[in-house]
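Example record

One chain of 323 residues, shown exactly as stored in the release files.
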Amino acid sequence: MTRAQAVVAFGGGHGLHASLSALRLLVDDLTVDDLTAIVTVADNGGSSGRLRGEFGVLPPGDLRMALAALCASDTWGDTWARVLQHRFEGNGDMRGHVVGNLLIVSLWELLGDHVDALDWIGRLLGAKGRVLPMALTPMDIRAEVRGLVDGDPDALTTVRGQVEVATTEGVIASLDLEPPDPEVSPVALAKIAEADWAFIGPGSWFSSVIPHVRVPALRKAIAATDARLVVVLNLEEQAGETGGFAPADHLAVLFEHAPDLKVHTVLADASNLTDEQAHELRQVVNATGARLVLDDVARDDGTPRHDPDKLAAVYARIMDDDA
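Predicted structure tokens for this chain:
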């Protein structure tokens, strides 16, 4: 039997939730024995944005989703995952808030430590891994966007905020963070250094994936680690962020923002690729020295989301093939 692996996963939102749900299954079958999620904390909308604005804390939403993904597949885990994700209805001030967001902020206030509080919540849930924030200070995404100036399609406009970047009608040319060099948890850096494998993506490419390589300390740690880095591509373009992007464009823009990345494997869904897209993607992957894995990883219901069970099987093969 192959030695169990230490894994870190980078991202946020629904994409990271799918990837962590897959990796949690590999914890269950002992393929993975040390799983850490390092999660984007730049959200400024919804319940997370409201709590961030009122309390001056990190936006908890993506952290909450990562914790929910790591809940065990039993009655305890399923129940707590539903509790974490429960969104209040009604017509008062609590409308739209999510239970898990309030729980996270409560522990932050009580304990005064982001990492310690998330670990306590993980123990309560019986989570099959740790969840860590990408940085320890709230940040904003800043993008330079083309196509927003009438009569000058090449003019650049600065767009600030995760929600604003995710819904822009222009074409994102580049992305940075404010502040540009946020503090990073030493625990996160240690986990990256100790990992055997690192997974980045899928997810909102500019607001959940690329921010990780724009944090200088994280990018340096990812470049220096011996962990084999797997880039998991999205199933399709995303209106606002990556309109008109083919799979090869997703990979190319990642390298534009982090040319020193050493990628071991690129994973893409075979069923969503045309022959031309597959050829273009293979050219880009070959140019980086990585290997390309094409497989069926999409849900069967027609939604553009990854299937955790299929992902788990492919992740296991990727790690086993390189054992």
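Notes: The radius of gyration is 19 Å.
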